[in-house]
Amino acid sequence: MLKVTLAQLNYMVGDIHGNIRRMREAAAKAAQDKADLVVFSELSLCGYYPGDLLDEPSFLQRLDAGLQDLLNLTRQYPALHWVVGAPTRHQGPGKRLHNSLLVLKDGKIRLQYDKQLLPTYNIFDERRHFEPGADTAKVLRIGNCQVGFLVCEDGWNDRVANDQGADYATNPFVRMGDAAPDLVVSINASPSHMGKREQRHEIFAQAAQRHRLPILYVNQIGGQDQIVFDGASFAVEPEAGVVFEARRFEEDIHTLKLDEQGHFQPIHGEGLGRVASQGLPLMEFYRQQIVLGLRDYARRCGFKQVVVGSSGGIDSALTLALAVDALGADNVVGITMPSRYSSAGSVDDSVQLCRNLGVKLHEHPIKDLIDGYARQFEASFGEPLKGLALENLQARTRGTTLMEFSNAFGHLLLTTGNKSEVSVGYCTLYGDTNGGLGLLGDLYKTEVFELSRHINRRAGRELIPQVIIDKPPSAELAPGQKDEDSLPPYAVLDEILKWQIEGHHLSNAEYARAAEFVQRLRTQPGGPETIARVQKLVFRSEYKRRQAPPMLRVRPRAFGTGRQMPIAAHYE
Amino acid sequence: MLKVTLAQLNYMVGDIHGNIRRMREAAAKAAQDKADLVVFSELSLCGYYPGDLLDEPSFLQRLDAGLQDLLNLTRQYPALHWVVGAPTRHQGPGKRLHNSLLVLKDGKIRLQYDKQLLPTYNIFDERRHFEPGADTAKVLRIGNCQVGFLVCEDGWNDRVANDQGADYATNPFVRMGDAAPDLVVSINASPSHMGKREQRHEIFAQAAQRHRLPILYVNQIGGQDQIVFDGASFAVEPEAGVVFEARRFEEDIHTLKLDEQGHFQPIHGEGLGRVASQGLPLMEFYRQQIVLGLRDYARRCGFKQVVVGSSGGIDSALTLALAVDALGADNVVGITMPSRYSSAGSVDDSVQLCRNLGVKLHEHPIKDLIDGYARQFEASFGEPLKGLALENLQARTRGTTLMEFSNAFGHLLLTTGNKSEVSVGYCTLYGDTNGGLGLLGDLYKTEVFELSRHINRRAGRELIPQVIIDKPPSAELAPGQKDEDSLPPYAVLDEILKWQIEGHHLSNAEYARAAEFVQRLRTQPGGPETIARVQKLVFRSEYKRRQAPPMLRVRPRAFGTGRQMPIAAHYE
């Protein structure tokens, strides 16, 4: 019999003292529950992912000191094993560090296991800093149990049954199966995106069954720049599958018993049911992920309040609603900035929206400023300001106004672009792309509508006025302008984009739908031209994305480090 | 006896047809010289580095078709071996591609060698897409010679003598030494930075000597976003060292003989001398690297002309001078945008500068625009616009004006920030950071002065007016403002920054100087506080760098992918 406390915490990158404090509090709770071990997540000492901080000698010194502090703390509960994640030194050829799991007890390191499979795809780049560990199972006797250990990616190469091909030549689960411990503890920093929780359950339930191993999977929560961790730590048994799941998007500390038969049990009473395979509905998942991502980004960068340019359109409306959800209405400010080409709704709908949300709205017309620019432009450059230059000027004057406000009053500016716009470059650099963080940059426009409707349904009232949801999307930078004058309808555009940008990263169902859609479009008059035009727009706007702020990732393949494309390239 | 043509070309990422055309032309020249083999560089088929284009199925199809085209071309010169670089498919666990060297002859692939050492540090991320090749030397008999092959990084782990520790567990040079071919051909995509040429000579001359191998090292030239390749391909012998060097920063096609004694010879006549170990003087190196980087970036992005905001300060002056150097005076436009706080010199010195350079200068005052913003700010937000918000507004109004010009007339906007400013965030996001490319972003301010003086010396006259070089640096955003009011003197700042940001990436001499400087500063009154303040500024301005355009890399550790730091982190 073994008592295990899973400590699903919100660590901050670089905040070694703070992370130790969080671990200490969880260890106190574990000791209270008389747990044999308390399990933290991958790189819990330094937060995930520290990047090139790992190259700084002073950072490594702080890590050494932090590990010493942790070791000293373990003496307070001499019977408790602490399973922590930390970079450790590697001697010999290769990178100078390992991504390690350490079992600490009573002032000593009882076991060190170095992560074997270091991901180098999508947002991951661990081979940059770490050397892989040896292909050996590490097992420690705790009480009368043998406990084996894995770190995150180590568990993801067990795909024989999935027929997906292996990402690495070795599969740590095979050695672990040979060692046949009573329990496998897997520590993780597993970023969250659409479908990820279900994928984890599938992979680990299959591995548990195939290798006859009960597995405890501990993840972290919290937002780290573009990335959000959702927690949802879980316990899985060979036969019963996933029998326990911790909270999502919240810290959670929970103690379980592993009984003699290898079943997980609650510490009081008996019986854990099978956890539902279906998680949050997609839109509610998006909402919770974005809310946590914003909350952590703002807090960690030292912002209490945010400001959003309110155009009367759906993107800014949804951004405002999510910001209120994350930070409270008192901490959110909207600014409406009508120009000559703004519809009446631009201001009126913003007023209604901000009233619904309880948010302060400022009005700052830009017409005179635009006129001033246009006059000076003609005087200096000898031609009237017109066309695209005039359209972009409006966006930039608004972006400048928002930054005035941000600089003067200390609010974090949120940018409002969605993934459809960002994909095809339907946005003005140094204008509406201004901001420290984007909330919708990984949501397609069709999803922006869907999430807006969800927000209203959830509130039981029109937080986002229906008129905003119903109006045809427009940048309102020229008379009578509509997005669909220059872009295909979003229902078409989004399917092309999913197919082009995310491809095999999509779920099977979403990919099949997008691929079939594109296939059908190819056979329609003008279809191939539409597809080619979209592809070209995506390639040609790489330079804009390079200068974009971080945009919260909710899908498997987000812009940012998830998709690394050259700018000055030839695309056929 | 073997005749080898080294083809040092300027490939473009993604331009498979264009790259094949370039190779075909060089092959024709090789055939004319009756060469046995013509050597192109690493990934010559697709350009270096294609990034996630390698994940696109359509790109892989284009590569397949391109390789077939190349194979067909080789039939035109049936006696000629083509040594090309291309991604090839990898079967089995791991990444789906290899970074391969292929020897093609008369329609067939005669040899495939897969790069073994895949760099994952600094700007390199090859493990993201490629699986390493097997630890075996690949040798091909050509005529009566055995020729061995390596790809770039494969040659960089031979550091026993240097006592620097090994970056990888294997050293391809050891197996190559065992195979003892008559010649080793190394194909490379080796980005250029201060000291890199000398480092290549040192590493490969030592390896040639240690393993008794004559080596032909073929590099490419050209600018790829932030990165510039300098060519400088070379031939090195075990005893004599580097005996031949191709041009730097220019395409060069050159045929050499390898005689029976293993000596390289010119094809006509005899005798190659030892190549001087010292390359270009540093400032001339910077100049040539930046000129090529700008030229290629502009051309590849479809720009003929550039525009620069001319403040009358040294950064914009040097940017203008380098732009003229790269593109010609007719293709460069300056805009002076005086405000209330601009010194008289701001306009007058810009006029003189642009007259010296032969560049068209527009004057576009921003005083009225600033007044308009300030009026509307107070009317909308109820407070006067002042302090930092007012300072930044000036930079943003200028940035907006420059983008009006860029959008209206189709000029590429160049940003002018130097590495000192970019490091400490002494710049306005969406203001003076606006632009598609930065020329000086990897030069410290002290180097900006030095390069400016070099440009004048080289021209034999004041291209950059001495008054601009002599005036104390100022952002001119507030009355009487000087950079050194808010920052340490640049002579101090730059040494701290070199030590903090580049550390062990610096040359030994530069590192020793910076480390000693910082050490001394620590013992001086206020020294530790200055150091701490600079470090904090660097960490706190990560968010600005994340939104910066590509800045041409000239030093070993440039911002961009060369230094990957989290934004929302805790720095102690």
TrEMBL record, chains A, B:
Pfam families: CN_hydrolase, NAD_synthase. Keywords: ATP-binding, Ligase, NAD, Nucleotide-binding. Its EC number is 6.3.5.1. L-glutamine binds at Y121, S190, K196. The gene is nadE. Pathway: Cofactor biosynthesis; NAD(+) biosynthesis; NAD(+) from deamido-NAD(+) (L-Gln route): step 1/1. Residues 2-260 form the CN hydrolase domain. This is Glutamine-dependent NAD(+) synthetase. GO terms for molecular function: NAD+ synthase (glutamine-hydrolyzing) activity.
